[in-house]
Design goal:
Layout lengths: L2 H7 L40 H14 L3 E5 L2 H9 L7 E5 L4 H13 L3 E5 L4 H7 L4 E7 L11 H7 L6 E5 L4 H4 L9 E5 L13 E5 L2 H14 L5 H12 L1 H20 L4 E5 L9 H7 L6 E6 L2 H10 L4 E2 L9 E3 L11 H7 L5 E5 L5 H12 L1
Parallel strand pairs: 2-3, 2-4, 4-5, 5-6, 10-11
Antiparallel strand pairs: 1-7, 6-7, 8-9, 9-12, 11-12
Helix pairs in contact: 2-9, 3-4, 12-14
The protein binds pyridoxal-5'-phosphate.
């Protein structure tokens, strides 16, 4: 089946022959045993639940993984992945990462004796210089949040030749509709399902999908043991969101391209970071490894005062954290998503008080540009 069809028909109610078109919400904590020592396949919903199972199978088939696991948030998925490692292990990560991931790495992982080193994963030499014999994984976000730096996943995989390392990619921004990291050599893909997969700004969820079934089973054991599984109702919302993933991604991307071009022409806009602009440093790599550029734009205005006034003046576009939903959202990374990133690092990455991040939603692009126009000019 093609991707769009899988989004819609990838899940089925496999427990009853009711003919239900949508997977029902199996709102049950526990399941009876047919007889002693027997199971229906479901024992207790922390372990597995029929609604969540269908969602996990859908995500696995979209990513091309041997399996997938659904979590109660993207951070719960990242935290589960971290449990693969032991004190003394090292992880090398992209230096420009989602702020919550940095917080998890710097506080929880560090406390547990796992050392995280950062590098510009777009530069293989820089990456090699921080890899040691203790390095157990390379963690990539591409395009990065919020600076939209692009890493060539297959190139990183080649540069790790022969090393027994896990290549982990946070694919939240592009989704499997535009990019399939497991096909490019990654071992694990991470998602915040709260973003494009859910797509409606109404649910928090997360996913891990792994290429090999042995790794899936290891992660499943950790999930079952630590317990951050996605609830049945939220699993239903995610299944519902995924049905329109391709439609939403197409619409949002088309609008993002138009908005990026429009922003470039505005006098008060000093820089536009959108991967789909031919002058973006990651444009060619993106064309090679992804079938689309996504719908996230960061842009720099002339002054801090302009940045603040844009946030206060937008009407249709909502000033709120998060991204990837049908409602367009604008955020101020320095005060929100990246408030916990040390200043020195923020300066190096270019996250300043003039930078705004826009998640383009599914509204008509004319309305979005009108709103930006009245807020900026
Ligand atoms: C939002 C986000 C996360 C965290 O996911 P939650 O669902 O908010 O816990 C991780 N990575 C990226 C790139 C994100 O945008």
């Amino acid at each position: 089946m093609e991707f769009e069809t899988l989004c819609i028909h990838g899940s089925k109610d496999n427990t009853h022959n009711t003919g239900a078109v949508c997977v029902p919400i199996y709102q049950s904590a526990t399941f009876t045993h047919p007889s002693v020592g027997e199971s229906t396949g479901y024992d207790y919903s922390r372990q597995q639940n029929p609604t969540r199972e269908q969602l996990e199978q859908t995500v696995a088939s979209l990513e091309g993984g041997a399996g997938a696991l659904a979590f109660s948030s993207g951070m719960a998925a990242v935290a589960c992945m971290l449990e693969l490692f032991s004190p003394g292990d090292e992880i090398v990560a992209s230096e420009d990462l989602y702020g919550g991931t940095v917080r998890l790495f710097e506080s929880i992982a560090a406390k547990n004796g796992i050392r995280i080193f950062y590098a510009d994963t777009g530069k293989p030499d820089e990456l090699q210089s921080v890899i040691s014999y203790k390095t157990k994984a390379v963690f990539i976000e591409t395009p990065t949040n919020p600076m939209m730096n692009v890493t060539d996943i297959a190139k990183v995989k080649r540069s790790l030749c022969g090393r027994k390392l896990l290549l982990i990619v946070d694919n939240t921004f592009l989704t499997p509709y535009f990019c399939k990291p497991l096909k490019l050599g990654a071992d694990i893909v991470i998602h915040s399902g709260s973003k494009y997969l859910g797509g409606h700004n109404d649910t928090i969820a997360g996913f891990l999908s792994a290429k090999e079934s042995a790794l899936c089973e290891k992660l499943r054991f950790i999930q079952k043991t630590t317990g951050a599984a996605l609830a049945p109702f939220d699993s239903f919302l995610l299944l519902r969101g995924i049905k329109t993933l391709a439609l939403r991604m197409n619409q949002a991307q088309r609008s993002a391209g138009e908005i990026a071009q429009w922003l470039k022409k505005q006098e008060k806009i000093k820089a536009v970071h959108y991967v789909g602009l031919p002058e973006h440093p990651g444009y060619e790599i993106s064309k090679k490894q992804a079938s689309g550029f996504g719908a996230m734009i960061s842009f720099e205005v002339d002054t801090k005062e302009t940045a603040v006034s844009v946030l206060e003046r937008v009407k249709l576009i909502l000033y709120a954290e998060s991204l990837g939903g049908v409602e367009s959202l604008i955020t101020y990374p320095i005060l929100q998503t990246h408030a916990d990133v040390p200043e020195e690092k923020r300066v190096k990455l270019g996250i300043n008080e003039r930078l705004l991040r826009l998640s383009v939603g599914a509204e008509n692009v004319k309305d979005l540009i009108n709103d930006l126009n009245q807020a900026i000019n």
